[in-house]
Write a structure and sequence with these properties.
The complex is a heterodimer.
Chain A (H helix, E strand, L loop, with lengths): L4 E11 L2 E12 L3 E6 L5 H9 L6 E6 L2 E3 L9 E4 L11 H7 L4 H7 L16 H13 L5 E5 L7 H14 L4 E5 L3 H7 L2 E6 L3 E4 L3 H7 L5
Chain B lengths: L1 H28 L6 H28 L5 H4 L5 H28 L1
Helix pairs in contact in B: 1-2, 1-4
The chains are: A alpha/beta, B mainly alpha.
Amino acid sequence: MKTHLLEADSMWLEYNGRKILQSTYIKMQTGMVTGLLGRNGTGKSSLLRMIFGTLRGQNQSVRFNREYIERPYLQTGLIRYLPQSPFVPKNLKLNELCEMYHVQFESMVRYFPELEEYKQNRISKLSGGNSRLVETLLILLSPVQFVLLDEPFTHVSPLMVEKLSTVIREQKECKGILLSDHAYRHVLDLSDDVYMIVPVGRSVLLKNPEQDIKSMGYTS
Amino acid sequence: MRQRLQAIFYFYQSIGLVTGFISLALWVIAQLPLREDFQRFLPLYLILKAITDFLLWRYLRKHNQVRLFFYTNMGISEIRLYMLAFLLDLAAFFTFFGIIKFLLSI
């Protein structure tokens, strides 16, 4: 299978003169999970939104297979993004949602059989954890080449985190996944490459992630 | 394509009640114009609708921005979403107006 490359280069973001990101670089590749770590407020979510194309910074260059694309989210079948907060309309039914996103409901059920009973239910009827799980699966199982996951393990029980990790491992066979979460242990386990955003807004590719995050003060 | 249209219709449904009420209120305030007076009402109506829909857009953008990711994930830009919702809004009002005019002509 041909490998595809998505690069975010020279990402520069400032708010009212306060620097958030400075010439940040990140490379993603199909067949790989790329981890993204950083303390609160270092601009991880902003970086993800800039890569997705909905947030414009002072400068940015997102390249797909070395070709510049202005707004990646407008390219059919290229990229989808899981934001930190709930984004799915609550009144939609689960099966309608899957149809709109070209995701087979059966593929969700294959990983999480307990979702079967909610097929005809509106999202508002699901618990917070299940709702978050559905949103994460919706993005992960989408027929796109790259997915950006911002805190996919938040509000999800430990057992579900394990299962979600299995989905991520399987899905990376056909897509590139950027994973950002404070559950750094899971991020390290799942990632082939790990980047750290360090003050002020620069990215560092970690050579020895376990040691590096300690020496950078991310863990004690 | 069908899924995108479905999503845009869905978005319009979520704001249609408010924007429909605004249209109706403007029409009532203008003393229910139906014939020649509607021609005079129309430019003012379009301007006020553009302003009120723009304000609604700003409000939703400020308070509910994350919801937009549902649509951007489907490749629908924010501008396109609001422009199409605006057109649907106008279409809904003109359909309503047409029905009223037809009923009164019977």
